[in-house]
Design brief:
The complex is a heterodimer of chains A (266) and B (403). Helix content of chain A is 39%, strand content 23%. A six-stranded mixed beta sheet of chain A has the order 6-7-8-3-9-10, sandwiched between helices. A four-stranded antiparallel beta sheet of chain A has the order 2-1-4-5, with helices on one face. Chain A is globular. Chain A is of the alpha/beta class and 266 residues long. The longest helix of chain B is centred in the last third of the chain and has 32 residues. In chain B, helix 4 runs parallel beside helix 6 and helix 13 crosses helix 14. Helices cover 68% and strands 2% of the residues of chain B. The chains are: A alpha/beta (266), B mainly alpha (403). Chains A and B meet through helix 2, helix 3, helix 4 and helix 6 of A and helix 9, helix 10, helix 11, helix 16 and helix 17 of B.
Chain lengths: 266, 403
C-alpha cells in the first residue's frame, strides 16, 4: 500500500491514546463514568459492552463530536479533550460510524477525496484558477484515493454513489475514507455489524493489514468471534462504568463480564 | 479544445444534459446581439438591455447556487449582498459623497469598483456569516431572512449617507480602460476614442464576459477541495467534521463567495441603471433568486442558469405582456366584447393583469410538479428523487440480502 503511514517501529509499546477519569453526563444521566485506560501503539484494542453501555459516547468524546464533561483524553502526549472534530482528524485520529454515515450522493471516490481534505494544501486561489500546483495535487490525491479503494477491495464501485454500494461495500468505504485522513489511530464503531461470516473474516484480514501498515486500531464490536480473534486487549463497559480490562482470555473468564452479558445466575 | 468538442458531440444528451445546456447557453449568449437585431428589425437596444438585466439575475443565481446548492445553506436574505454591491458602486463612482459628511466626490472606474465591490460584499458575507453559521437548517434561514430585511432598511434610514428612499442617482458611466483607448484612439473611425459605455450592447458584452468568467471560476471551485468539502457538509455535516473538514470555515467561505457574486451583480446593476434605491433589494429579490436556483436544479451550474433565464422571462417579460396578449386573443377569436368593462367585470386586460401572480404561481407549481429535481438537475438531485426506481441496487435491497 503506497500512501499509508510507514510500518510501526519495533520499539517498546508506547501509549497512543490515554483516557484519564473520563466522565460524560447528559443532564442527569451519566453515560460514561470515570473511565481510564491506555491504548498502546500497534495493537488492536477493543471496547465491548451491552447496548447502551456508553461505548459510542466514548468514541464521540475522543473525536470531539461530544466533548467529555470532565477527565482528560491524551493523544500522543497531547490533551485533546474538547478539541474540535476536524482538529482531532488533523492530529491523526479517524473514525467510522456505527450507523454508516457516508456522503450518500457523492461517489465512492469523492467520499475518499473528502477524507483527503485535511491533508491537502490547495488554497482557494489555487482551486479558483486551477493552478498547476492544484492540478498536480488533485491528480496525486485521486490516485491515492483509487489506491485506497483497491486496498479495501471496492475499486469497481469508484464512480457509483455511496448509497448505491452494497452494504459491505459501504462499511469498507467508510474505513477507506477514514484511512484517507492518514490517521495513526483508527476508531472503528461496530465494523462487522450486519456482516456475513465470510465478510467478517475478510474484515478481520483488512484490520490486520491496517495494523501492519502502522495504524493503531481501537474498535467497538459486538461480535465476540471478531473481538476475540483480532484484539490484543479488551475493555468492557457496562452502564458507563469500566468493569473489566485485559486480554481476551482474562475478559472472557471475568465473572462481572459474564454477569453483564448474561445476567446474574440464580 | 477539439477533443472537448468531440467529447461533447458524442455524449448522449439524455445522459449528460449539462454539456448540451452549456453549449446552448454559450451559443445564445454569443449570438444574441444578432438574434436581437433580427427579432426587433434593426432596433435591438431594448432586447439587449433586457438581456443585460437578465444577466444580473443569472449572476445572482450563480452566487446563491454556491450557498444553497453546493453547501446546502438556506439563505433567504441574499438580496442584502446585492444591495451592498450596488451601494458600493454608488458611493465610489458618483458625486453623491459630496452631500454626505465626507464632502468629497469619489470617482473610481467601474472596473476597479467591480473588484472592490467583490471584496466588500465578501467581507459582509463573512461578517454576517460568522455569528450565524453555527446555526443549522431552518434557524439559519430565519436569521438570513432577518439580515435581508435589515440591510435595505439601513440603506433607507441612514439617509445622511444614502439619501434614504430617494437612493443615489447619476452614477458614473463605465469607461473603457484608458490603455484600451491608447494606440487606436486617434484613428479616423474614432471607434474607441473616449468610449463611454452607454450602449446596451456594451453592457451586454460586459455581462457576457463577467458570466463566462464566473462560470469558469465557480465550476473550478465545485470540482476542487473546497467544492467537495461543501458537498460533504451538505450531505452530512457531522461526518464531514469527523473527516477533518473545518465546517465553520467552509460554510463561511461559501457564504462570502456567494456574496462576492452579488457584489459583481450589484456593481453592474448600479452602473447600468445609474441609480440605486433601497426599494430595489427587497425580500422579493431574494426569493426570486432562490426560486431560480431551485427551479433550475440546485447545485448544477448550467441548470441554475437556465432556471434563472426562464424565471426572468416569465416574471419580467411574459407576465407584463399577459394582459395585452389576452386582449388580442379575445379580439382574434371574436370575443372583443370581453375587452370592455361591464358591471363587476373590469375587461379582460385588467382582469388578467390582476391574475398575473396567480399565473406565476401556477407556472411555478406546474414546473415543480413536472420536474421536481429542477430543469437541468445535478446528478445527485436526479438520484435523490428517483430513489429505488433505477436499476442500481439500493441499500434496502442489500440489507434484505445480507440479513
Amino acid at each position: 500500500m503506497t500512501g499509508l503511514p510507514s510500518a510501526a517501529s519495533s520499539a517498546p509499546p508506547e501509549v497512543v491514546l490515554r483516557l484519564d477519569h473520563v466522565v460524560k453526563r447528559f443532564g442527569g444521566l451519566v453515560a460514561v463514568n470515570d473511565v481510564s485506560f491506555d491504548v498502546k501503539k500497534g495493537e488492536v484494542f477493543a471496547l465491548i459492552g451491552p447496548n447502551g453501555a456508553g461505548k459510542t459516547t466514548l468514541f464521540n468524546g475522543v473525536t470531539g463530536l461530544l466533548p467529555p464533561t470532565s477527565g482528560s483524553v491524551i493523544f500522543e502526549g497531547r490533551e485533546i479533550a474538547g478539541t474540535k472534530p476536524h482538529k482531532v482528524a488533523e492530529l491523526g485520529i479517524a473514525r467510522t460510524f456505527q450507523n454508516i454515515r457516508l456522503f450518500e450522493y457523492m461517489t465512492a471516490l469523492e467520499n475518499i477525496l473528502v477524507g483527503e481534505h485535511c491533508r491537502m494544501h490547495a488554497k482557494l486561489w489555487d482551486s479558483l484558477f486551477k493552478t498547476p500546483r492544484e492540478r498536480r495535487e488533485e491528480k496525486a490525491v485521486t490516485e491515492r484515493a483509487m489506491d485506497l479503494l483497491r486496498y479495501v477491495g471496492i475499486d469497481k464501485w469508484a464512480n457509483s454513489y455511496a448509497r448505491n454500494l452494497p452494504y459491505g461495500g459501504q462499511r469498507r468505504l467508510e474505513i477507506a475514507r477514514a484511512l484517507a485522513t492518514k490517521p495513526r489511530l483508527l476508531l472503528l464503531d461496530e465494523p462487522a455489524a450486519g456482516f456475513t461470516p465470510q465478510e467478517k473474516v475478510e474484515l478481520m484480514r483488512l484490520v490486520g493489514r491496517i495494523l501492519e501498515s502502522g495504524v493503531t486500531v481501537f474498535l467497538i464490536e459486538h461480535d465476540m468471534k471478531v473481538v476475540m480473534g483480532i484484539s490484543k486487549r479488551i475493555v468492557v463497559l457496562d452502564h458507563g462504568e469500566m468493569i473489566a480490562q485485559g486480554t481476551p482470555e482474562e475478559v472472557r473468564a471475568n465473572p462481572r463480564v459474564i454477569e453483564a452479558y448474561l445476567g446474574k445466575q440464580h | 479544445m477539439i477533443g472537448w468538442f468531440r467529447r461533447v458531440w458524442e455524449t448522449d444528451p439524455r445522459k449528460d444534459p449539462n454539456s448540451v445546456v452549456y453549449i446552448i447557453l454559450a451559443l445564445v449568449a454569443l449570438t444574441f446581439p444578432i438574434i436581437a437585431n433580427v427579432l426587433s428589425g434593426g432596433k435591438p437596444n431594448f432586447l439587449l438591455s433586457v438581456a443585460g438585466d437578465a444577466g444580473v439575475y443569472v449572476l445572482l443565481t450563480l452566487g446563491l447556487n454556491v450557498v444553497v446548492g453546493m453547501a446546502g445553506l438556506l439563505d433567504l436574505g441574499y438580496a442584502a449582498f446585492f444591495a451592498i454591491g450596488a451601494y458600493t458602486f454608488a458611493f465610489l463612482a458618483s458625486d453623491h459623497l459630496v452631500v454626505t459628511p465626507l464632502q468629497m466626490a469619489v470617482h473610481i472606474p467601474f472596473w476597479i469598483v467591480l473588484i472592490i465591490a467583490l471584496f466588500v460584499a465578501a467581507s459582509f458575507g463573512l461578517i454576517l456569516g460568522a455569528p450565524t453559521l453555527r446555526l443549522r437548517g431552518d434557524y439559519l434561514a430565519i436569521v438570513t431572512l432577518g439580515f435581508g430585511e435589515i440591510v435595505p432598511r439601513v440603506f433607507k434610514n441612514a439617509s445622511v449617507w444614502t439619501s434614504g428612499v430617494n437612493g443615489i442617482s447619476a452614477l458614473d458611466t463605465p469607461m473603457l480602460p484608458f490603455w484600451l483607448q491608447g494606440p487606436w484612439s486617434g484613428d479616423p473611425l474614432q471607434v474607441v476614442q473616449n468610449f463611454k459605455i452607454f450602449d446596451p450592447l456594451a453592457y451586454y458584452v460586459i455581462m457576457v464576459v463577467l458570466l463566462f468568467m464566473c462560470v469558469i471560476l465557480v465550476r473550478n471551485l465545485q470540482h476542487s477541495r473546497m467544492g467537495r468539502a461543501w458537498a460533504a457538509i451538505r450531505e452530512d455535516e457531522v461526518a464531514a467534521a469527523a473527516m477533518g473538514v473545518n465546517t465553520v470555515q467552509a460554510k463561511l467561505l461559501a457564504f462570502s463567495i456567494g456574496a462576492a457574486f452579488s457584489g459583481f451583480a450589484g456593481t453592474f446593476y448600479g452602473a447600468k441603471l445609474s441609480l440605486v434605491s433601497p426599494e430595489n433589494f427587497g425580500f422579493t429579490v431574494s426569493i426570486t433568486v432562490l426560486v431560480m436556483v431551485v427551479l433550475g436544479g440546485m447545485g448544477n451550474i448550467p441548470g441554475v442558469m437556465a432556471g434563472s433565464l426562464l424565471v426572468y422571462y416569465v416574471i419580467f417579460i411574459l407576465l407584463p405582456q399577459l394582459p395585452d396578449l389576452a386582449v388580442s386573443l379575445a379580439n382574434a377569436i371574436g370575443l372583443s366584447g370581453l375587452t370592455q368593462s361591464s358591471g363587476d367585470f373590469p375587461g379582460i386586460g385588467e382582469f388578467v393583469s390582476r391574475l398575473k401572480f396567480l399565473v406565476f404561481g401556477l407556472i411555478l407549481v406546474v414546473v415543480m410538479l413536472v420536474r421536481p429535481q429542477g430543469l437541468v438537475p445535478s446528478r445527485e438531485r436526479q438520484q435523490e428523487l428517483t430513489k429505488g426506481t433505477h436499476d442500481d441496487t439500493t441499500i434496502e435491497d442489500v440489507n434484505a440480502e445480507t440479513t
